[in-house]
Amino acid sequence: MRKISLWLFILVFTASLARAQDATQQQIDQLNGKLQDLQESVDAQTKKIAALEKQISDLGDKLNQPGATGNANADDLKKLAAQVQEIDKKRQADNEQILKTIEKLGKVSGGSTGHKSSPAISTTTPTDTSTPNAAGPQKGYDYTIAANDTVLAIAKAYRAQGVKVTSAQILAANPGLNPNSLIVGKKIFIPDPNAK
Predict the structure, then answer these.
(1) Domain end: 13, 36, 66, which one?
(2) Cβ 189 vs Cβ 131: under 8 Å
């Protein structure tokens, strides 16, 4: 009976040992799987780092090329300013051409376009005219109000001719002038703020 129990003990011990080996093998297999996953992750990160290093190197090469700094220098800004001024001149010339074309169309159609024509302004040189304005004598122009004139249209017409006057300045230079009821044929004074 002792032999049987000894054999039984050895059998149980061997079975326990086999189960422990199986559990250990499973743990080893799991650890190997995790190590492989980590190795793949490290390889992917290494590839990403290499790609980023290449991009940084390429950008460094681009920055080291002459004229490719990405920053504007004074000459670049001067060239840009000259181009902007040229574009603005072209815009002004186009605007003047458009206005001339509209005037021609208005004349051709007999003025029935519904467009209020700009007031005909005097092209005489500025004169000293004493106005009742509290500021004292001013230089400017005499203007005779025509049909369909408005203070705003008169101011715009003078501005188009280079006289930088506003409706408010015209009203201030002509006390008692009602902008809502201009009298045709009445002379008003157009101040020239630029004349000295």
Answers:
(1) 66
(2) yes
> What stretches of the chain show up as alpha helix (H) in DSSP?
2-64, 74-108, 151-160, 167-173
Between 86 and 173, name the one with better pLDDT.
173
- Nearest Cα to 154, choosing from 145, 104, 180, 185? 145
Sequence-distant (6+) residues with CB within 8 A of 108 are none
Closest CA to 152 of 130, 182, 125: 182
Structure tokens at 79: 């060239």
193, pLDDT greater than 60: yes
Beta bridge partners of residue 128, listed in sequence order: 139
Q: Would you say 182 and 148 are in contact if contact means Cβ atoms under 8 Å apart?
A: no
Residue type, 73: N
Strand partners, 143: 188
The confidence band for 66, taking pLDDT boundaries of 50, 70 and 90, is: low
Inter-CA distances, 161 with 112, 124, 171, Å: 25, 12, 19
161 in Cβ contact with 173 (< 8 Å): no
Domain for residue 20, yes or no?
A: yes
In contact, 170 and 153? CB cutoff 8 Å: no
Domain that holds residue 49: 1-66
Q: Is residue 120 part of a domain?
A: no
> How many domains in the chain?
2
Residues 87 and 95: their CA atoms lie apart, in Å, by: 12
